[in-house]
């Protein structure tokens, strides 16, 4: 385990062990703490699964040195896999629908990965189909499939959660995390619930996302600007287990936009929209624990700030709400 105080041999050794920082706009008696995942070398939480999954597949022999990982992804996952693949002698190919952020595609290419664009109108489903077709053509290629691969959640069970628990001497009352694949929340929740089955577990989504379908809510589907979390079809969220989740918080783009600005202006956090959502939800959970509305085994809430706002400056995250969403 690195303390970041000794010389490291590779960027992969700098994955994880991110700082856990108090969110000040939370009750004194029930603090919120956030893992700052932009401290990873690829600047997001997804470096964790990139390293963990590539190493695990190499160990299991489902992938061999010189082989290829092919993932349909538009975002941080590609960068995380590209960092790991580059250092572990594995080729990386990402299939990205054309409309997605050019910045992230540039970073993937800089890391040595190949990026293949599919037509925007074919959506993510088109990218997934193309990734599998490509894997069939190549020798020794795997599609890690973060949405259904248990190694995704396992990465957080093995790293993100134990780091937070160690920092707080095991006194974690609630875990709050926005769900894209759900890997972060599921891995952390499993770890927390093994230690104390009463840990309060809360999923977070932007308004317009349909995670509510898991809980029998008639979720109203809509567009949202917040990136990295939410779903439009829960059938794709195979890792998400609603039985582990006590509450689902749904936050509007407008509230998230305000919280991103507040986190930067008041607390010095240059974090992106999913962090804004997590911060608001975690602060609400802390107030619920403080007021006694929610029972939690400890008076502390842990959440995750998944990536940095710098990755989205060109999208106007710090401009007015109308400019951001326009
Ligand atoms: N925030 C951001 C910025 C992300 O890229 C992701 C991953 N899609 C998440 C949060 C959610 O993580 P997970 O897929 O583990 O639910």
Any overview of this molecule?
- There is one protein chain.
- Helix 1 (46-60) crosses helix 2, helix 1 (46-60) packs across helix 5 and helix 7 (253-267) packs across helix 8.
- The strands form two sheets. This protein has a six-stranded mixed sheet, with helices on both faces. Strands 5-4-3-6 form a four-stranded parallel sheet, sandwiched between helices.
- The chain has nine helices and ten strands.
- By secondary structure, it is α/β, with parallel strands linked by helices.
- It folds into two domains: 11-41 and 150-325, Rossmann fold (3-Layer(aba) Sandwich); 46-142, Rossmann fold (3-Layer(aba) Sandwich), CATH 3.40.50.
- Helix content is 37%, strand content 15%.
- The N and C termini lie far apart (44 Å).
- The chain has helices at 46-60, 76-87, 102-110, 123-137, 150-167, 183-195, 253-267, 273-291, 321-325, and strands at residues 20-23, 32-36, 68-72, 91-97, 114-118, 141-142, 174-178, 200-206, 247-251, 301-305.
- The structure holds 4'-deoxy-4'-aminopyridoxal-5'-phosphate.
- Strand % is 15-25%
Mean pLDDT: 95
In this entry the ligands are: 4'-deoxy-4'-aminopyridoxal-5'-phosphate
Helical segment tally? Answer: 9
Helix content: 25-40%
What is the CATH level 1 assignment of the largest domain? Answer: Alpha Beta
Counted up, domains total: 2
Structural class by SSE content: alpha/beta
Low-confidence stretches: none
Give the radius of gyration.
Answer: 19 Å
- Note the main sheet: 6 strands, mixed
End-to-end Cα distance: 44 Å
Given the C-alpha coordinates, what overall shape results?
globular
Lateral arrangement of strands in the main beta sheet: 1-2-10-7-8-9
CATH topology category name of the largest domain: Rossmann fold
CATH architecture of the largest domain: 3-Layer(aba) Sandwich
Number of strands: 10
Helices and strands, in order, run as EEHEHEHEHEHEHEEHHEH
């Amino acid at each position: 385990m690195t303390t970041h105080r000794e010389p490291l041999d590779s960027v992969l050794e700098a994955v994880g062990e991110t700082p856990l920082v108090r969110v000040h706009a939370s009750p004194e008696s029930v603090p919120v703490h956030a893992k700052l995942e932009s401290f990873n070398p690829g600047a997001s939480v997804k470096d964790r699964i990139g390293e963990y999954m590539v190493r695990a597949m190499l160990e299991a022999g489902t992938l061999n040195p010189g082989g290829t990982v092919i993932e349909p992804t538009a975002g941080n996952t590609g960068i995380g896999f590209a960092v790991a693949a580059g250092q572990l002698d594995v080729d990386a190919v990402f299939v990205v629908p054309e409309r997605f952020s050019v910045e992230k595609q540039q970073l993937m290419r800089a890391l040595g990965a190949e990026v293949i664009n599919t037509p925007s109108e074919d959506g993510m489903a088109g990218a997934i189909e193309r990734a599998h077709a490509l894997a069939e053509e190549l020798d020794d290629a795997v599609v890690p499939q973060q949405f259904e691969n248990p190694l995704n959640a396992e990465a957080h069970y093995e790293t993100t959660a134990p780091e937070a628990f160690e920092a707080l001497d095991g006194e974690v009352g609630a875990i709050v995390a926005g769900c894209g694949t759900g890997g972060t929340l599921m891995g952390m929740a499993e770890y927390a619930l093994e230690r104390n089955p009463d840990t309060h577990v809360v999923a977070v989504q932007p308004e317009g996302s349909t995670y509510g379908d898991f809980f029998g809510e008639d979720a109203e589907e809509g567009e949202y600007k917040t990136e990295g979390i939410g779903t439009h079809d829960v059938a794709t969220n195979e890792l998400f287990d609603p039985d582990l989740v006590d509450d689902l918080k749904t936050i509007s783009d407008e509230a998230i936009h305000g919280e991103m600005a507040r986190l930067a202006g008041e607390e010095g956090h240059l974090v992106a929209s999913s962090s804004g959502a997590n911060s608001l939800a975690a602060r609400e959970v802390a107030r619920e624990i403080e007021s006694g509305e929610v029972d939690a085994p400890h008076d502390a809430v842990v959440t995750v700030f998944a990536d940095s706002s710098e990755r989205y400056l060109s999208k106007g995250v710090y401009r007015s709400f109308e400019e951001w969403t326009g």
